[in-house]
User: What shape does this take?
Amino acid sequence: TCYYLDIANPETKVAIEVDGGTHRTPTVKIADAKKEEYLRARGWTVLRFWNEDILTWSDTGMPTDGSISTILRQHGIRLSP
Assistant: This one.
């Protein structure tokens, strides 16, 4: 099995997946679940965000009080201003 990750830090085993509209379809949801199960079984933390949420967050200057910022900080990911 070969999986590709949008962003990954092998040292901390944190993967970030940014999902577009196709990830709402049943087939892709199943594939995503299998991928997450595979990674979690190997000690990875998988953080999943929607494209539109990332774009909105980025457009507003990546506020540090936003939920995405909070989730990233909770997993030791520092944000650059």
